[in-house]
Design a protein that fits this description.
6-stranded parallel β-sheet, alpha/beta, 25% strand, 11 helices, Rossmann fold, Dihydrodipicolinate Reductase, domain 2, 9-stranded mixed β-sheet
Length: 385
């Protein structure tokens, strides 16, 4: 018999839906000691949060997150609200001993993230940041390939994360739908929203980034603000590119923009090493491309007439997470990455080995983001602790 784990969800937007779906699905596909219960959700707009609660099957709803956190029937606080709300909610939830799951980026900046880390660690509460792309089976397989020594000494890491939804100058900033364009709410633009994913994946696969130098650009300097109805300066970065040096000596290039016409969610990475390479494209999410140059155990070079890029269809039962889903050859989608992440969090509760990335890992990513933004302003190399 599984133990109920009562969920308090803050936010009803894109991430609120993705997380709620994971809570509903995880016990159907994973055998776990804890069974999530959709106990309550929360947002300021009573009409909208009631409709969200009714649609997803939450037992109740609140319009003040403080009341949600104070409830004794809530075990887990899940933060799917805008970035500028994360810190205050985390500090209050930790003080009340709630487990906490938080959307990325963890905070507005590294100083906030550091405070949040200390709070959850002092309280001893389980915590996780929703960097869901780690749970794409093909990306997890890339990590396995690296851990098995099949890449060998790494030389180059390159990542892109491209979208096109803010190109039009009449797209406003602010409000419930477009807060990601409002610096006061988001903290940054593509660096925190998109490159945070790329950075987390890069450090998970290739180790810590030690130095960066960056350039950022805001192409549309003014946009109407939804809440004031007036044109205001745009403070977020529309585009960012940066060079990185990893602790292992390899070099990295990162590029992100919301002005790449035709790209909707183009998220790629490639890691080149002495013995092989891997490449991944989120728009082809069930495929991991792998180039094998030498045997990982002996170092013997593969015969040249047999070398070439291999397209691995990551749907077999022996691939990460896929034994929990369908038969080989059947793919899973974006929503399943959240279910896989939640399953890892719940498994961490029962084994005592906390799931990653936790808040401390989220702080690492935040430090890199801060360094990128600082370098974008100064034009200089910035070292990361």
């Amino acid at each position: 018999m599984s133990t109920p784990l009562n969920i308090g969800m803050i936010g009803y937007g894109f991430m609120g839906r993705a997380h709620s779906n994971a809570y509903r699905q995880v016990s159907q596909f994973y055998k776990l000691e804890h069974r999530p219960v959709l106990k309550a959700c929360c947002a300021r707009n009573a009409e909208k949060i009631k409709a969200f609660a009714d649609n997803w099957g939450y037992e109740s709803y609140e319009t003040d997150w403080r009341k949600l956190i104070d409830r004794k029937d809530i075990d887990v606080i899940d933060i799917g609200s805008p970035n500028n709300t994360h810190r205050e909610i985390v500090l209050a939830a930790a003080e009340r001993g709630k487990m906490i799951l938080c959307e990325k980026p963890l905070a507005m900046n590294a100083a906030e993230a550091e405070e949040m880390c200390k709070a959850v660690e002092k309280a001893g509460v389980a915590n996780m940041v929703w960097f869901n792309y780690r749970r794409v089976p093909a990306i997890s397989l890339a990590r396995q390939v690296v851990d098995e020594g099949r890449i060998g000494r790494p030389f180059h890491y390159r990542a892109t994360y491209l979208q096109d939804w803010t190109i039009a100058e009449d797209v406003p900033q602010g409000g419930a739908a477009l807060w990601r364009l409002d610096l006061a709410v988001a903290g940054s633009g593509v660096t925190g929203d998109l490159l945070a994913h790329s950075i987390d994946t890069a450090e998970w696969l290739n180790g810590p980034i030690r130095r960066v130098t960056a350039a950022t650009e805001t192409f549309v300097k003014e946009r109407m603000h939804v809440e004031t109805g007036k044109k205001q300066s745009v403070g977020i970065d529309d585009a960012c590119m940066f060079l990185a040096v990893f602790a292992n000596g390899s070099m990295g290039t990162f590029e992100s923009t919301r002005y790449a016409r035709g790209r909707k969610n183009y998220n790629t990475f490639e890691l080149n090493g002495e013995r092989g390479s891997v490449f991944f494209d989120l728009e082809d999410p069930h495929i991991l491309q792998y180039f094998k140059h030498a045997d990982p155990k002996t170092g013997a070079k593969i015969e040249s007439h047999l070398t070439g890029w291999q397209r691995i269809n990551v749907t077999n039962f022996e691939h990460p997470y896929m034994d929990k889903w369908w038969v080989p050859g059947c793919t899973i989608g974006y929503e399943h990455t959240f279910t896989n992440a939640l399953a890892d969090f719940l498994i961490g509760l029962q084994t005592g080995k906390p799931a990653q990335p936790d808040f401390r890992s989220g702080l690492r990513t935040q430090k890199v983001c801060d360094a990128v933004l600082a370098s974008g302003k100064s034009g200089r190399w910035v070292d990361i602790e």
